[in-house]
């Protein structure tokens, strides 16, 4: 059921969904002007997809995500917004408090606003300032936030105890939604599930398999990625010295459009592991591959139909820490999260726009 709306000042009204009608909690503005010495002194938290929304009204989508600071040797988790043109920080706000806040803090954009989850609640944020407008309690920890396909004002919230709900960001009302919208269904775990660390919400699906639409001599498949009109398989050469390989199929066809080494470079320079991260965007496919001797990762864009290499660039600082776990493609840019950084590349040229986050005294 949907119960009561409460309006405070000019804040957007948010309904509390509950059987016993708990009171609505309203937070004060947490908008913070960012001093220069704090503007870069943070680490990017590689937890989930960034949210994208034009919060400053300049016509370019800005980037909203989870960051971490260390203040007096203590960790401080925050949600922050960054200008899409310059990557300068616009605002920061503390997430909902409670045990498990780091794991349960997720942010998603919908209807010109932001929804932030916490251990047992949702908070609606004003996009321009990060100011909390109101909160809705949850029956358990949130597992996922998802925008239903074709919806312009709702966010579906997956809750661990299965008391899922749908939050309308325009009216501020929440109602039970036990069935996930089709695009929000989380595939069940199986023997073919790709790595457990693979974030949900990627536009490309992935499965771990050694089966291809047709046999390719010397190609042992490991992962298959699907999106749009294409199927992308990554694997390794076998028999023989291990070399990372790629094959691209058009949907519904068994003959590959092309196949071969992941990059146009000496294959002995590549780590003998199949690429674990690939994303498709239109007729382009993006891969991350690792160098063996020099170390570090490269991001490469290839034409999905012909295999032509559009560009191939190194991922900065990827010789240390954990490697990239995902690729996020949005509005002509490619976002590569790894360890404490989020690197931003132009999709057309591979040019590095900049990096959010840093490590230590870097």
Automatic annotation (TrEMBL):
SUPFAM superfamilies, alphabetized: Quinoprotein alcohol dehydrogenase-like (SSF50998)
Protein name: VCBS repeat-containing protein
InterPro entries: Quinoprotein_ADH-like_sf
């Amino acid at each position: 059921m949907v119960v009561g709306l409460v309006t405070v000042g000019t804040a957007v009204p948010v309904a509390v969904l509950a059987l016993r009608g708990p009171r609505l909690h309203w937070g004060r503005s947490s908008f913070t002007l960012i001093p220069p010495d704090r503007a870069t002194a943070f680490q990017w938290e590689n937890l989930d997809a960034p949210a994208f929304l034009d919060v400053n009204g300049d016509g370019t989508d800005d980037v909203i995500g989870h960051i971490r600071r260390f203040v007096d040797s203590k960790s401080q988790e925050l949600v922050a917004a960054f200008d899409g043109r310059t990557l300068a920080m616009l605002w920061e706000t503390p997430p909902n408090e409670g045990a498990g806040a780091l794991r349960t803090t997720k942010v998603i954009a919908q209807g010109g606003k932001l929804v932030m989850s916490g251990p047992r609640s949702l908070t609606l944020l004003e996009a321009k300032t990060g100011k909390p407008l109101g909160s809705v309690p949850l029956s358990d920890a949130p597992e996922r936030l998802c925008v239903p396909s074709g919806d312009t004002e709702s966010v579906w919230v997956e809750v661990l105890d299965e008391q899922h709900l749908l939050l309308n960001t325009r009216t501020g009302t929440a109602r039970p939604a036990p069935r996930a919208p089709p695009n929000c269904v989380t595939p069940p775990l199986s023997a073919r599930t790709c790595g457990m660390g693979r974030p949900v919400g990627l536009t490309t699906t992935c499965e771990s398999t050694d089966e291809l639409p047709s046999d390719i001599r010397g190609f042992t498949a490991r992962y298959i990625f699907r999106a749009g009109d294409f199927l992308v398989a990554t694997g390794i050469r076998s028999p023989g010295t291990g070399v990372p390989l790629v094959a691209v199929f058009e949907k519904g066809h068994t003959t590959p459009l092309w196949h071969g080494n992941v990059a146009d470079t000496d294959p002995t320079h590549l780590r003998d592991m199949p690429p674990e991260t690939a994303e498709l965007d239109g007729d382009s496919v993006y891969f991350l591959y690792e160098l063996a001797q020099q170390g570090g990762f490269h991001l490469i864009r290839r034409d999905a139909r012909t295999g032509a290499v559009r560009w191939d660039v190194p991922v900065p600082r990827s010789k240390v820490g954990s490697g990239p776990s995902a690729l996020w493609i949005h509005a002509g840019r490619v976002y590569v999260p790894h360890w404490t950084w989020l690197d931003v590349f132009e999709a057309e040229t591979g040019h590095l726009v900049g990096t959010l986050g840093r490590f230590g005294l870097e």
